[in-house]
Design a protein that fits this description.
15 strands; mainly beta; single chain
Amino acid sequence: MHHYHRTAVGDDNIAEDEAVSVDVHNRTVTFASGKIVKYGSLILACGSWTNQLLHNSYLGLMNYITTAEQFTYYEPKKAEDLPLHETSEMPIIITLHNRPHFPDMELGIYCLPALRGGIGAVKVGQHQDGQIIRSLQHILPFKVQLPKLPVSRSSETIKEVPVEKDPYLESATNGFIQQYLPGLDGTHACSYGRCLYQLSCMKDYDFIIGAHWDAPDGRVQVATGFSGEGFKFA
């Protein structure tokens, strides 16, 4: 779960500790250090680790999946053209189209201009089309049917975010660069990173926010299903 985080419970401010379980009847949170803290009301915002905490707490799981995504960077073909691809000259680009067989879900590319004084490259990524992660840390609820999920490789699952580059995702961003930004070297990414995304599997694919049905009196609220993009709505 989280190895470095800060948790506020009552008058306590707990740093660099991991919440491992919740007792909704005694209203306590147990941490990896062994510390037990009482609560009056509780908000669980644990990202893609939400179901791990709920499972450890004998509470019903949330209906979402976790995917391993990739962001990539592309350099200009000519070093002198870098200013044309910086924030002062180049806009943020977002392309969207409907996913095959899922007309209500959008798939696309996002593109962020280079920052002056940064690594000298444009950041590009395919929006939420990575492999599904399935492990003890990232638990899939039983109600999720993998072949029916709106991701291109829904039949594939992996146990953790890979360190190596994903050629499938890179081919999508290479193609975008070659077609729309010819001033960049679209043959390969000069740098990349991997990250976690969440996808809500509710009927409307919306974020999951509300009281947990297994907790008495609505004292435990859950906010999840939006890791990777929730910050845009804050």
